[in-house]
Amino acid sequence: MGFFDRLANVWRGFLSLWVSGIENRNPEAVYESAIDERVRKHRELKKAVSGIVYLRNKLSNELEQMERELKDVMTQLPIALEDGEDDVALVLIQKKDELTSKIESHSGDLKKVSDQAEEAKSGLLAFQSEIEKLKREKEQMLAAKANAEARIRIQETLDGLSTDADVKALDGVREHISKLQAEADIGAEIQGDSLDAKLSKIKEKAANSSARAQLAEMKRQMEARRSAAAEGVKKSI
Q1: Which structural domain, as residue segments, surrounds residue 10?
Q2: Is 169 within the bounds of a domain?
Q3: Of the candidates 96, 97, 114, 99, the residue with the CA atom closest to the CA atom of residue 59
Q4: Is 113 in contact with 59 (CB distance < 8 Å)?
Q5: What angle do CA 137, 124, 202 make, to 5 degrees?
Q6: Less crowded by CB within 10 Å, the N or C end of the chain?
């Protein structure tokens, strides 16, 4: 690696630290930027989904129109045959075959586009849920930050009353450890209140209940076999 490459790496590292420092000092701006970016992507996704829905509706309308035309042709064809209008009957038969082929093709296309539309709408709803979740996280974390800063200011005020350097140093260490514990507590609380955590608990209870039911059924079957065996012995005697 040459000198300029190393210099570029140092500069990128310095820039990264500088940006990280700005972000740490302005967490609200970072959250707002992340939320705005997701809202922008949500609008783009919504526009794309609307295009799929439009295509689905268009295919559906066209299919209904062709089915109506086929119904008319099938009504007119017997009349042409009865009247001896063979030329007209031939035209109607050709039209029937064309409409039947188009209806089959359109039905397949409509099924594919309808499935895509449903999948896209589900993705859109999930993306909206993620935005709302991030907004709630922003409020929680900013409240935690304000609380921690208030505690730090109180601690600094109390530290100012002490003249012993070792006491101040210990207070600083205690404050740092308390902040780390608070950060860990916040993460645990958020994790415990999440939908994933609640769902995991429900799944665990359901699994235990199912296992107990299977155990009870196995014991019942075993007892039935024992009873049947005992009954067979009695009869043989």
Answers
A1: 1-134
A2: no
A3: 114
A4: yes
A5: 60
A6: C
**DSSP H or E segment with residue 194:** none
- Residue 20 is assigned to a structural domain of this protein: yes
Tokens at 141, concatenated: 């974390």
Q: Which residue among 76, 106, 134 closes a domain?
A: 134
89 close to 80: Cβ distance less than 8 angstroms: yes
- Rg of the chain on CA atoms, in Å: 36
pTM: 0.44
Answer for the pair 52, 117: CB distance below 8 angstroms, yes or no: yes
Tens digit of each residue's pLDDT (9 = 90 or more) over 162-215? 445 556 666 777 787 777 777 766 655 555 555 666 666 667 776 677 777 787
**Interacting residues of 19 by C-beta distance below 8 A, sequence separation 6+:** none
